[in-house]
Design brief:
- The protein has about 220 residues and is an alpha/beta fold.
- A seven-stranded mixed beta sheet has the order 2-1-5-6-7-8-9. A two-stranded antiparallel sheet has the order 3-4.
- Helix content is about 10%, strand content about 20%.
Length: about 220
């Protein structure tokens, strides 16, 4: 991209509008990592020279880069286009305050690494959520949209929208089949597989009970 050198000389109001136009929805992956930290010197009386004490340190991990405008200049950083988020996790044990830059109104948050329960303290701030399995949403009270990655196909989710554990409407449940790229909302997904039908079992059908048993021959 060519650098626009006269940009700093533009009127302040125009520069602000340009910075706002740089904000786009992102998919942000977040997980909690950890490692054991030695709290004391290694001692000879410990097996194999193990440290006297160890602490399990947890920290936030995200492969998603910091938004470009925040790396550009102080003016862009001061506009509040993104917020320091996820710092409310009390399980984090690092020495420094940890956070992830997010625009919670438009960013799609994907929590990795198991259950969502470890993120309960920050759950009320999440509006758009991405997941790969059924999860406990009790604390995600403000979620407006959920994207579901159907790793084993979309059909295994047929009938799931009737469950009361979803925090948003069926229209805002987005099911994605990564194998063929099919994307349907909850209403469309249920209609698709309802139309395909399910096998009907009739107990009055002789074949339901298997092949007939041959009569016993007595001599």
């Amino acid at each position: 991209m060519t650098t626009f050198h006269p940009f700093p000389r533009l009127p302040y109001e125009l520069r602000i509008q340009i910075w706002k136009l740089t904000v786009e929805p992102r998919t942000v992956e977040i997980r909690v990592g950890g490692f054991y930290k030695d709290l004391g010197p290694k001692t000879k009386d410990k097996p194999e020279g193990e440290p006297a004490d160890r602490q399990y340190v947890q920290y936030l991990v995200t492969p998603t880069p910091v938004p470009g405008p925040l790396q550009t200049c102080r003016e862009a950083r001061n506009l509040g286009l993104y917020q320091r988020s996820m710092s409310g996790l009390s399980d984090l044990t690092g020495d420094e305050k940890q956070y992830v830059w997010l625009n919670l109104d438009i960013d799609l948050i994907c929590f990795r690494g198991g259950s969502l329960e470890k993120f309960n303290q920050v759950a009320p701030s999440v509006k758009r959520l991405k997941l790969e399995s059924k999860s406990e949403f009790r604390h995600f009270v403000n979620v407006e949209e959920v994207h579901v990655i159907c790793k084993n196909g979309m059909r295994e989710w047929h009938g799931s929208t009737a469950d009361n554990w979803w925090p948003c409407s069926q229209e805002n449940l987005i099911f994605i089949d990564p194998r063929d790229g099919l994307i349907l909302n909850g209403v469309q997904m249920e209609a698709k597989f309802d139309a395909m039908g399910r096998p009907v079992i009739d107990p009055l059908d002789p074949t339901y009970w298997g092949p007939p048993i041959p009569p016993i021959q007595y001599e």
